[in-house]
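Thread: "does anyone have the structure for this chain?"

Original post by V.I.:
We have the sequence but no experimental structure in hand. Need at least a predicted one for the grant figures.
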Amino acid sequence: MRLRTTVPALAATALIALAAAPSAQAAAPAPAAAATARPAAAVPAFAGHTYVLTLDNGAVLRNSYSADGTTLDWTALEGPMAGRSGQERLSVRQVGEGLYFVNWVEASGMTVSHVMDLGHSTVSVYWTYATPDGGRAGELHTATLERVSS
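Reply from O.Q.:
Generated one for you, C-alpha cells below.
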C-alpha cells in the first residue's frame, strides 16, 4: 500500500521559492570573458558542522557537512538503515533566512531532499527509492535537527 502525503507548508514554500528563482539557463548569455568566471557561491550556514537528525520514523542519522557545504558524510545510527553510511555530493540553495533546500542522489539510486530550517532546528525530508517491482516509491518525513559539533 502506498500512502500519499502532502508536502508541509515549509517544504512547499521552499519549493515554490526554488521554482520562482531565476535559473542560470534563463539568464542572458554573458560576454566571453565573464563566461569563464563563476561567481563564488555563498557557503551555507550548516557547512563545517555535524548534526544529528531524528526522524519521525525512528531513524537517527549523523550528518557531517564539509567546510564548503558541498559534501555530506552520513551515518545511520538507529532505525531501518542502522550501520549504513555514505558520502554524498550536495546541491544546495538557500531559500530563506537560515532555510536551505539540499538534495543528493546516492549510488543506490535513492534520491534525498531536505528543507533544513536552522532557525527552528527542523528538517522536512523527502526521499525516493526503487521498489522490488521495478517502480519507485517516495516517503515524506519530518525530523528534528541537533547540532553536535562545529
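V.I.: this helps a lot. The radius of gyration is 17 Å.
O.Q.: and The longest strand covers residues 136-149.
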